[in-house]
Amino acid sequence: MLDGYGFAEIIGLRGPFVSDRIRAGIAIWGPHIDYPRHQHQAEEVYILLSGSAEFSIEGDASQIYSGGDVVYVESNRWHGLKSCDKNLVVYYLWRAGDLRQTSHFG
Ligand SMILES: [Fe+2]
């Protein structure tokens, strides 16, 4: 989808731990990657493992989060992020909603 971005699903419909209720894995962004504004039915938690990013979440002022921070996004709320000057490593979780659904960008 993006240069400088990748992810590995650990729990979810693609496994290796199969679940239709939780989708979780590790995502990595290189420095200065703009991950565009998007929304999805599932609520989402980002747990930042290393690096920093500026998150833009609908209705809130943009804010920079770093390793150890947890960012929660409600179902269908528009959100996006821009990684800062180092690699960003995140453990992400999706819960509820249709886990087969992909993000809507816009
Ligand atoms: Fe998301």
How does this structure look, described?
The protein has strands spanning 5-12, 17-18, 22-29, 34-39, 43-50, 52-57, 63-66, 70-73, 79-83, 88-95, 104-105. The protein has 106 residues and is mostly beta strands. Strand 6 and strand 7 (63-66) form a beta hairpin. Fe (ii) ion binds at residues 38, 40, 44, 79, 103.
Primary descriptors:
five-stranded antiparallel beta sheet; 58% strand; binds fe (ii) ion; six-stranded mixed beta sheet; mainly beta; globular; 106 residues; 0% helix
**What integer value in Å does the Rg equal?**
13 Å
**Unreliable stretches covering 5 or more consecutive residues:** none
Biggest sheet character: 6 strands, mixed
CA-based shape = globular
Mean pLDDT: 93
Number of helices: 0
* Estimated structural class: mainly beta
Tell me how many strands there are: 11
Please trace the helix and strand order, writing H or E for each element.
EEEEEEEEEEE
The proportion of residues in beta strands is: over 45%
Helix content: under 10%
Please list the strands of the largest sheet in the order they lie side by side.
2-1-3-10-5-8
**End-to-end gap:** 14 Å
Bound molecules: fe (ii) ion
